[in-house]
Amino acid sequence: MLKNQLRAILSNPIRTRLLDPYYRFQSLEEIALAAQFGVKIDVNQATVDDWLRLPLLSIHQARSLVTLTQTGVQFYRLEDIAAALALPVKRLRPIEPILQFCYYDRSLELNVNQASLEELLQIPVIDRPLAEAMITQREHQRDYQDWVDFQRRLSLSGEQITALLPYLRFIASKSINDE
């Protein structure tokens, strides 16, 4: 009996579509249904693709939200997102059921463009050769711009990047000419 119920749930094409992380919701009704299925978007870790799943947001708004979170801004409630986008809260209220507001202690993150060898070696997923390569690349080329630049320059796998996500952030170092 339980197997049949599980099979029926998993074979539901609407459910399958709504659970697909690359599916863009077509209506507010789909958002409400997705929330019932347990779909959540963590607003403080959402990517542009995550935000674009929502029919109310443009690519410019999605990029703006991601840029804000990458620079350390955290959203604690729907009103924060509305303020960041200069939108009325009531316009965003229909998407609230799938938004998840989690707090992350950013003090645990190192700025990869300023971290010393000793600091990098404190991160459990960074060994000495990787830490040395990170510093060498940074010193001989330029600051890392973002995760894509970091991954490309160090030839890291997706799994390695995933393991590093909680520990690193990218803030450009101030050059002498900027002062």
Task: Explain the overall architecture.
This is DNA uptake protein. It is a single chain. The chain has helices at 2-10, 13-19, 28-36, 48-52, 59-70, 78-85, 89-92, 117-121, 128-140, 147-154, 158-164; strands at residues 41-42, 99-100, 110-111, 168-169. The chain starts with a helix and ends in a 10-residue tail after the last strand. It folds into two domains: 9-100, no CATH class; 107-178. The protein is built from eleven helices and four strands, in the order H-H-H-E-H-H-H-H-E-E-H-H-H-H-E. It is globular, with a radius of gyration of 20 Å. It is mainly α.
Entry keywords:
mainly alpha; 4 strands; 179 residues; 11 helices; single chain; globular; disordered C terminus; two-stranded parallel ribbon; 49% helix; 4% strand
